[in-house]
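Observation: inputs received (chain + zinc ion).
Thought: call the complex predictor directly.
Action: predict_structure
Action Input:
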Amino acid sequence: MKSILPFFIVQYTLGGWVTFNFKEANDTITEHVGRIEAIIQCETQDGRLENTLKLSRLLFVNELGNFNSADRRSWANNKELWMVEEEPLYTVLPNVINTSVVVWLENQSQPNHFDYRVREILYQNFVTHQWRIRPIIQRHLHPSEFVPFPNSPPIQDMRQFKFMLDIYLDDFGTFRTVYHSLGGIYMQLGNMPFELRKRLKNHLIIGLVPFGGKFDDVMRPLLHELRDLEKGVVMTIGEENVWVVAGIGLVTADLPQGNSLADIKQQGASHGCRMCMAPRNQLTDNTYDTINNARFHHITEQLFEQLQTLINQNASQTIINTFQVEYGLCSKLGILSSLSCDRHLQTPQDAYYAFGDKVQKLIDSTLSLFNNSGKEIFLKYW
Ligand SMILES: [Zn+2]
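Observation:
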């Protein structure tokens, strides 16, 4: 995105740090430091499309409320900022931006020059609603930090199309109660509105996993195509060559399959949650801090590197197993790990699996209480 000032052009990028003006409720204008979390196009009242920014705001030490301690003030020096989570983003036009700044996130290598540093994140526990602080390393990276930028099209004014691919898989019985099941792997274009997505013809079958077969083996032939699509490929629509870039949006599966797609042990393991490190005996504990103890993609990557080092050093199987159990890791990385996606955020829990079965039981047992005329009345009002 470019902002044209009288004498020069400033280019802002997704994930970049900026200072911006914001009009507060009492009409005073204050300057904040923020990050460009997303660049979107919004429709104006007269039907034009307008570039709009979604900005997150960072706080100075004097804005930290209870956390504004003497100790923090002593090392903050006007240069330290705090990221805030669970706060709504500012949706603004690009003209509120003053300038771009360099922010050093202190768990990364230090740049030659920086305007501000960030060491901690302020976040709210969603059960107790208490504000807390956690170190900067415990953070889901912004996609601009780990998704490589796609190539430019070979011809400058070639039309560009960008797609989000949703992959999902599920087993189904092949014939009544016969145990042998087939796994179906399907894909949808996440860009489609819901009206189109729900149509059967828009569910594309990638392949079927035979009983005893593996997801990775069925996906392998498709993988190099997905990697090429992340960088961009030329496709021909009618007479026209267009530039197509696509990446994984979400991967949806039931609980055990979802865990193995996210390279995490199954749900019965000591740490069998693919979103957080909750030990088995605290899986239903509301007070467990699932935000501070979340699984973070870059940390899981480091753990797999450590696991690989143990294997390369011919460590005993007991040491390797203990390491895997301690962090709930699968024995090796799955095929999706070579794509640009965050295994913990982009393999969401499928809520339907958690309650679908129970709702069916509830309805069955409710209906069994009625006689025939009762059933008819119940269904009429249902
Ligand atoms: Zn969890």
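Thought: report the result.
Final Answer: Residues 310 and 316 are 9 Å apart (CA to CA). The first strand starts at residue 2 and ends at 4.
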